[in-house]
What we know:
Layout: H1 4-21, H2 25-32, H3 36-42, H4 52-140, H5 152-163, E1 169-174, H6 181-203, H7 210-215, E2 222-225, E3 228-231, E4 243-245, H8 261-264, H9 266-278, E5 282-289, E6 296-307, E7 319-327, E8 344-353, E9 372-380, E10 383-388, E11 402-407, E12 425-431, H10 433-437, H11 443-490, H12 493-502, H13 523-534, E13 547-554, H14 556-561, H15 565-586, E14 589-594, E15 597-602, H16 611-637, E16 645-651
Amino acid sequence: xxxxxxxSGEGSGSKGENESRSGSESRSGSESRSGSxxxxxxxxxxxVYVPPEVAKREDANVLRARCLVAIILLLAMAGVGTATSxxxxxxxxxxxENQFAGYATEILTISGSTANQFFDAxxxxxxxxxxxxxxxxxxxxxxxxxxxxxxxxxxxxKLAQLTGVHNPFVGVxxxxxxxxxxxxxxxxxxxxPLWYQESVEHEGYTDxxxxxxxxxxxxxxxxxxxxxxxxxxxxGETVPYFQFxxxxxxxxxIMPTNIDALLSSEKTAEVYRIxxxxxxxxxxxxxxxxxxxxxxxxxxxIVQPIFDGADTQAEDxxxxxxxxxxxxxxxxxxxxxxDGEEGIFVVxxxxxxxxxxxxxxxxxQSPTESERxxxxxxxxGPDAVLLGETDLHDPEYDDLVVSQVFVDLGIDQSQLPEGxxxxxxxxxxxxxxxxxxxxxxxxxxxxxxxxxVIFVFTTLVFLLYDHSVGKRQRIVMDRIVKQDQIVxxxxxTAIRDRLYENQGKNVVTGDPLLLEDDGxxxxxxxxxxxxxRIGSAPLAxxxxxxxxxxxxxxxxxxxxxxxxxxxxxxLLETIYGxxxxxxxxxxxxxxxxxxxxxxxxxxxxxxxxxxxxxACRFARDCLKKMKDVTLKLELSLGPDTSDLDLRTGIHR
Length: 652
């Protein structure tokens, strides 16, 4: 016979058995009669069986994925930590640069303003002296060079307060023509003791008396030559120092009074020539002897012309004297910054070449760095120190330099004598490594550690989550193995393997007629959806030699009508369970249960030659087992339970 129905009924019967145990007899029976494909299609989706070898491969893949994620986390931790540290350092560098720019701007602004104030004070002082001389000329008919400035020390100290120069060396030298030298020498001898006395009293100088100062004064205009103090005999004008501040005398030395400024120093003579030509202030570099330490330090001397009238801008104005001040630029870089603002390099650079006393002087208008006057100072808060007469800043900070013209007298260089130069002084401000170090902190390391801790915490959370997922996967795997074992127990090996092979194949089955458009009721969608939910082709094989056993309960309808549903369930569950054990023992394949009907077949799915004998033996044992079971259930299900009988039929 064709037993394709029976083979499909294997899945259906198994389902009917399971459903009968759950109290769904009617639904099981109706679905079994709809054909093998329908019964199979309405069964619950079955889990995919995962053989142990596949599980091992998946475990290996999961392990590799875990290692990859761990490596990525480690690399990300290192990368983000490093990036965080670098960003913090970059921000510290930016803060350092911004703060230095503020310091540099403050230094340049204050020092530039002070320099402008200095030259304005010098010009005002020279104009004041010229005005005083003019008034004296009106009263006493005196004129330059035969004029002594009254209250000299008092006026110079006021000038020092205006210019901001501490303990400056200031001198006035009148322009004495050649025919005025003898008269000048007499005037100087007469006036020198007077202004000595006035200055000593005002300055409180007690080291020497006025007479000792007079004795240390050369009584004529002189210069220091090879043979010592020599009188000036050259033709032309002389510019002897007359009044100066402060009045000091070193042991074994002489007073600078009456020394010719033009012959005493080539640098002073160069500045005087420029002033005489341009009729404007001039500046030059020189070395200054400190009144406090007696050491010589680099500085500048500024020559301010004094004219013979109140109108210093007149075309015919005559320069009758020069007012000379020597200043150490170091004083101008003090008290610029507050305490704690340390490590600033200030480089003062001149555009003119150096002048060397008694040597060959360069005349190049584009001198090299070694030929220019360059002085480097270090500013530490309110203090400033001289570092040297060259550029000593750290080249590492060349890109951060802030520069500004410090002094520019606005003199047209083309008006100067050949070889002369009026310097334009420029300030270059640089930071130092010490200043940058003050902005460096451990924040980069701290933030990097925080990032590492966050990543470690994230990694731990990931590991915890992975452990939780792994645990769940193991539970799922254990359940799948158990389900596989159940499937193996329910279905023969051949059927089980074929179920696994067909699992997941998207095969749509069903009657094409049912898939046609059935109008507004949407039956096509209903059946098409049902067919799609089948998801696999039915298992149908031809078995030409099998024996089918039919068994149903005699008197069941009347008995069940007088019983509760749970009692009906107990009866059927107990009887069918006993029949299942007999079927297993005789190698009979249970096809299905339909209500109180039990269907089984011998000779499938494993063909046998004695299938008829096996079926008969199975039916015989079922009859015996029926009597035993009903007798045992009589006490719990009622006395008429033992009256139930079993009717069997065998079809070959």
